[in-house]
Amino acid sequence: MSARGVAAMSLVAFLVGAIAVFPGAALPAQAATAAVTTDSALTVAWNGDTSSAREFQPERLPSSAHFNDFKNLSVTVSQTTGIIDQAVRVSVSGFAGTRSFSNDGTMVTNAQNFVQAMQCWGDPASEDFRETCQWGGRGLAGFGSIVVPDNTFRVGPDAWQPDATNVTDVPFKPRGGEPVTGRIVRVDGKDTYPLLEEIGAATTNEVTAARVGNDGTGYFDFEAQTSIQAPQLGCGSDGNNRCWLVIVPRGTHFGGGTSCSSFRDPGNNYAPYTKGRAGSVQGGSPISDQCDYWDNRVVVPLDFQPTSASCPTGSKEKGVIGSQLMISAMISWQPALCQSTSVTYSFATNPDSVARAQVIAEGAGPKIAYTGYPVSPGELLNEDERNQLAKTTLIYAPVGVSSVVVGFFAEGANGRVEKLNLSPRLVAKLLTQSYKFTVPSNSSDVRRPFAHLGEVNRSYNYLNQDPEFRELNPDNYSQFTNNPAIVLPGPSGADAIKQVWRWIVADADAKAFLAGEPDDWGMTVNPYYLPKGNPGASIPWYLDANGADLGDNPVTREVGLTNLDGSPRSLSDVVLDSFPKNDESLVPLHLGLEKSRFGSIQFAPYSENLLSGARQSFRGTPNSKTVWDATKLNSAGETGDWVSSGTQLPGDKFMITITDSPSAHRYSLSMASLKIPNSDEIVAPENDGMTAALAALAPTTLDTVKQVDPGKVSSGGYPMTIVTYAAVNVSGSDSESREKYAAMITEVTTKGQVTGTSIGQLPNGYLPLTPALVSEAQAAVTAIRAFGAPVAPASGGTSVKQSSTTKSSTTSSSTTPTTKDDQVAAAPEFQDSDNRTAATSAIASGALVIALVIGFLGFLIGPFLFRGLP
């Protein structure tokens, strides 16, 4: 498409609507569930600022046409130091309510009195400061009537044409790189937008428009990006810890002439605006040098934590593997541990079951792993691993308490929707693709892709039409006007995921639904998730053996879940540690221009982990690939493939993800309150709820390693609370390593349990360890330091074994010496009497082998990625 076509389409996109200018609806004044104000919060006044950031503000001139729009404006940023990849809350006050514009078919949702924001890395006093700001990545994202489209570019309309001369450019200068033009460029007769190679629509953190309430206040959450997420900004890289959050308010006065914006006044024969005109729709880029909006910027310093290694040169390194529930904690603890112990504790996450297998493995790999459960013979893959476990002594120390949460980001025309209540059965409906919106579909066929769902299921076009959803959310169900995009971690398993399924199957209603019984209104589980052989486990299938569309003459196909041995599997009788996507629907059934179909994985791809799911949801990026691009090369080198459907638009977002409470806090997601199984009580994932849930700690396969049983949580307890342990293989470690593990556990269970945002503190979303758990950790440290390799008998006899019944949470069996340090006698062996498996995976054994390989590679690669801070 030509640049002229791009510009024309962008401007035509918002030429719809009725009449009148009207105030924007008020944004909620209260903070989001996950938003927390810190000691480094900073308030900057637009005029007459006296804060520590006053030297970075431009001069405010009373003669400016914009002065009266902003003279009472102030901006507060919730955190300005110790910044990592996270969201910070930006609150505004002293402004005026956002106004929309509609006249003669021209509609602009955010026309006046809104704010824009971006991250910059340069010198705020330099003339080229604007060139170091991340803006323009959404220039071709199709924002429709959200703003005047030329807001989203770096340059004015005169510079849109590739062959235009005597126009100015506002290039983007990546840190350490060559400037990239902000213009559209013609290469070999094709118009391109080179900026997208540096700043993509799915990854940029620019805020195109944040609305303000009628009372002149409002807030939005801004994604601060380190050099890991945004190397082009380099924030937190070597010696570059300070970057800038720049907020550009947009008022009611126009900031330039025709070179600033192509907007024309439909109320005045489509004449162009003149600079300084009052009552004007805000056209033009906030950073264009052809507009004066940049002069109104508010500049807030953001001091980032270093992303490079922070340990002194020559420090020793110890690998730590395991649960992704500890990512946020390790980001904070790692640099503090470097300073206090002179050891780099490199952390690599992998599936919990893989970490448990790795921690007992022979060789030089890590001998400490974060896990929610003890190593159990029942989950090990082969006899060699079980024999290795029999020779291994493990000591478990509780190190973290957090919760698994249903995080969500819902944003409508009136701002964020912060409250959501969910039951085990409703979450089971989402996880089993039992709603129409969770099944692969596209606009070419609105009937057949859903034919396998029950009649009642098919009657719900939207989540808020489900009577159960309405019963759970009687006061605000109507505010959820869109269907959510569901982002699930996977496909690998995790103890966090296991806690979700434990919560679901502990509830009688959810268990019955998974077994095939309808809910109170007749909704049934997707047949793909029934046990194979169940009378309901059959579907109409619209494709023949060659993939041709059968039209309205489908065949009946038997579906359903099986175990590895082919026997039927019922989700009501097992506890999974993964989120399978079993619906095998393919669309479009009738191929037109398309050469292939997409299924559940492309329709709703997995997120890499809990943290990335939170980040995706905050960004409004489902990552679905459901748009056919006839020009794209596919993996086979052929033209035509399915590509991203893009990000959700501001004011039109609804994302749901399964994540952990620290990640939800980190990205300012709202968190659903959950029903306690078999109860009408609904509890939020807050510290009080997690504390109450610890009363439901119950023994796992090892009596001394306890985990919250969602089915035993009583009043006030949040049912998906989870405890994470550090499992230390003391028999496979030398004395120096054991001392380093003991030092780490000592620090993270004492100083590391103080909640805060400073290095070494406990991030928001974790519950500080209770005194009882701290005592267990201290006892474990004592046992780790006291351990020595068992002494082989001088003649005959048997080895002495170490007890598992002590407070140190130790498992052991008869042991052959594997280290050469001072030897002490060990105590009797723990017997895993019922040989239970700690996690049941929905992934076939072949896939689990792949997961093991990936987990091992993750260990090899991970430390290099996580020596600094992600």
List keywords for this structure.
870 residues, alpha+beta, D-Maltodextrin-Binding Protein, domain 2, ten-stranded mixed sheet, four-stranded antiparallel sheet, 18% helix, 20% strand
Quick rundown:
By secondary structure, this protein is α+β, with helices and mostly antiparallel strands. It is built from 17 helices and 34 strands.
Layout of helices and strands, plus pairs?
Layout lengths: L2 H10 L7 E4 L18 E4 L21 H4 L3 E4 L8 E8 L5 E5 L2 E7 L1 E7 L64 E3 L2 E3 L14 E4 L7 E7 L17 E9 L13 E2 L5 E2 L25 E6 L12 E7 L4 H15 L1 E7 L2 H8 L8 E4 L11 H8 L3 E19 L2 E3 L3 E2 L1 H8 L23 H5 L7 H6 L12 E3 L7 H11 L2 H7 L23 E4 L13 E4 L41 H4 L6 H10 L5 E9 L5 E6 L8 E8 H6 L3 E2 L1 E3 L6 E2 L3 H7 L3 E3 L6 E3 L12 E9 L5 H14 L22 H16 L23 E2 L33 H21 L5
Parallel strand pairs: 16-17, 16-18, 21-29, 22-27
Antiparallel strand pairs: 1-5, 2-3, 3-4, 4-11, 5-6, 7-10, 7-12, 8-9, 12-15, 13-14, 18-33, 19-20, 19-27, 19-28, 19-33, 19-34, 23-24, 25-26, 29-30, 31-32
Helix pairs in contact: 6-10, 15-16
Structure description:
By secondary structure, this protein is of the alpha+beta class. It is 18% helix and 20% strand. The chain contains 17 helices and 34 strands. Strand 3 and strand 4 form a beta hairpin. The two termini are 38 Å apart. Residues 1-32 and 791-870 have low confidence and may be disordered.
